[in-house]
Amino acid sequence: MLSVGIVGLPNAGKTTLFNALTQSSAEAAPYPFTTIDPNRAIVPIPDERLDVLAKIFSQEVVKPATIEFVDVAGLVRGAHEGEGLGNQFLAQLREVDAIVHIIRFFSDPQIPHIEGTIDPKRDFEIINTELLYADLETIERRIERIKRKPGEKEREELRVLELLKEHIGRGNWAITFKADEKGREVISGLFLLTSKPCLIVANMDEEQIVKGEKVEINGFQAIPICAKLEADILAFSPEERKEYLESMGIKETGLAKLLKECYRLLGLITFYTGVGRELRAWPIKEGTTAWEAAGKIHSDIQKGFIRAEVISFDELVRVGSWATAKEKGIVRIEGRNYVMKDGDIAYFRFQP
Fold first, then answer.
1. Cα three-residue angle 300-305-306, rounded to 5 degrees
2. What is the pTM of this model?
3. Based on the number of CB atoms within 10 Å of its own CB, is 82 exposed (0-12), middle (13-18) or buried (19 or more)?
4. In a 10 Å sphere around its CB, with 0-12 CB exposed, 13-18 middle and 19+ buried, how is residue 202 labelled?
5. Which residues lie closer than 8 Å to 55 by C-beta, 6 or more apart?
6. Which domains, from first to last, does the chain contain?
7. Closest of 40, 6, 37 to residue 22, by C-alpha
8. pLDDT tens-place string over residues 298-336
9. Spacing of C-alpha 175 from chain mean position
10. What gap in Å lies between CA 30 and CA 9, rounded to an integer?
């Protein structure tokens, strides 16, 4: 399962956001380093199509696509040198597939800012700098090891590493470094923090959210969220929640937007299966073949793959049922090399 790490300065609202996302109760307190060991939780992705399919298939069990969120302790200046247990926390970030960087915009005298003032641009640069420095140290350690080996393969790796070091030294993330296939192999083995896709969340006051202002930080578009509001309204019923948000002029919660953006950031699409009592949404990477998708369900299905019977979500909704789609001949027969599309509903035939 793919995972997303939540990172930011202490008291930026990371754990509050995590609690809202996961509907859990990890400790959040107005002092730094409340989170030492990372909090982890599996979070369902909002999916309007799944609600429609549930009515069509009438399955008893409905399972949405999910991703894992990891709440990493707050980073501070000098984290790459071990400040605030920074090395430990940066190591935890290396394990995730994408990063959500939460930046404090809200003011609250009960929750002191570790830097003394509210300054989103400065806070963004602190975290960005720590991630870049941590990656530079990783690259430099690798360069020192490579220099002890005189082979042709090592010389090529050293060339890539020197170029990458220069790129990151100019303040650029590793994810923007242009490399050929061999270069990408070198980089992937380093598990660099800045090689991961990243989203920025602006954690705002309720009043700032209501204004609906767009937020940009250092040229990056941020997702505006009031983490406290999102956490508070979890106590409401779904109907009360909708009514309350509509009274504020909010059509969709910030959490729903964030979850969908994280899904997109990870390069995921969804296909569906409706077998027996269970309707299920399956997250897969774009470009996944039918044979690979079968393996997501079970290795036996992949091993004995014969064919996939596939119909798009829109086509199924148009005719109203799988049986009608079969009668009309619009369920397609696809082979193992068929590239799955977002919204495909599939039934896999296989030899046990």
1. 145
2. 0.82
3. exposed
4. buried
5. none
6. 287-350 (3.10.20.30)
7. 40
8. 999 999 999 999 999 999 999 999 999 999 999 999 999
9. 15
10. 12
Burial 108-147, CB ≥16 within 10 A → b, else e: eeebebbbeeeebeebbebbbebbbbbbbebbeebeeebe
Spatial distance between the Cα atoms of 249 and 171, rounded to a whole number of angstroms: 39
pLDDT tens for 60-116 read 899 999 999 988 866 767 655 655 444 566 777 888 999 999 999 999 888 988 888
For the record, the structure tokens of 225 come out as 């969220």
Q: Are 308 and 348 in contact (CB under 8 A)?
A: yes
The identity of residue 318, as a single letter, is: R
Q: pLDDT digits over 145-187, tens only?
A: 988 877 778 888 899 999 999 999 999 999 999 988 888 888 9
